[in-house]
TrEMBL record:
Organism: freshwater metagenome
Protein name: Unannotated protein
Lineage of the species this protein comes from: unclassified sequences, metagenomes, ecological metagenomes
An annotated Gene Ontology molecular function: DNA binding
PROSITE patterns documented for this protein: HTH_TETR_2
Keywords: DNA-binding, Repressor, Transcription, Transcription regulation
Length: 202
């Protein structure tokens, strides 16, 4: 959360983020936010135009938290990698972490936020800023790995950054079906792409 936010506004956002961990945006009511935050309705509408804006800001905050965690993990990985094998092993671990069936709810929340942004220019602008922050961070990390002689230069860094995010989020198409694929088969094909396409070949 930005330090420049008014404490009341920050508390309202944080409270709504916690509620969104349990409910869909269209299930959240003003009265529930007021009860859990202990803040008056007048204060809520002083800081936000309406409930919709508060829900949008809270969804962006959840998205930003996910972006922060992702960047932190990848910075540690790229900084620590000394060899191609180090990077490959680390990326395999990241794949298994981000593709874990146990965090399917996170993929759904991200997809829901993106979908909701389609019809709200205000929401789309705020969410796009967080999305751009992640893409730019991935580009920087790809370039750092290239400077270490570990990552291939045969493709555009931005295209690679978008592809990584696409397959990370894309597993959602298998998260809700009855006959789900073997997770190890999914990991194996991503590992193959990372090994044969992304990394420098020995």
């Amino acid at each position: 959360m930005k330090n420049s936010l008014h404490p009341t506004k920050s508390h309202l956002i944080n409270t709504t983020v916690l509620i969104l961990d349990e409910k869909l945006p269209n299930e959240v009511a003003v009265d529930e936010i007021l009860e859990k935050s202990g803040i008056s309705k007048g204060s809520l509408y002083h800081h936000f135009e309406d409930l919709g804006q508060l829900l949008e800001v809270a969804q962006v905050e959840r998205y930003a938290q996910w972006v922060d965690r992702s960047i932190e993990i990848l910075i540690k990985l790229i900084s620590a990698a000394k060899t191609r094998e180090d990077l490959l092993i680390g990326l395999k671990k990241v794949t298994r972490l981000t593709q874990d069936p146990a965090i399917a709810s996170t993929r759904f929340a991200r997809a829901r936020a993106i979908t909701n942004a389609e019809h709200s220019p205000r929401f789309a602008k705020a969410l796009a800023a967080e999305q751009a922050r992640l893409t730019d961070a991935l580009i920087d990390l790809i370039e750092e790995a290239r400077n270490k002689g570990l990552f291939s230069s045969d493709f555009d860094a931005r295209a690679c950054a978008v592809l990584v995010q696409a397959y990370t989020l894309g597993k959602i198409v298998d998260d809700f079906v009855d006959d789900r694929m073997d997770p190890e088969a999914w990991h194996a094909i991503i590992d193959l792409v990372v090994d044969r396409v992304f990394l420098i070949q020995d």
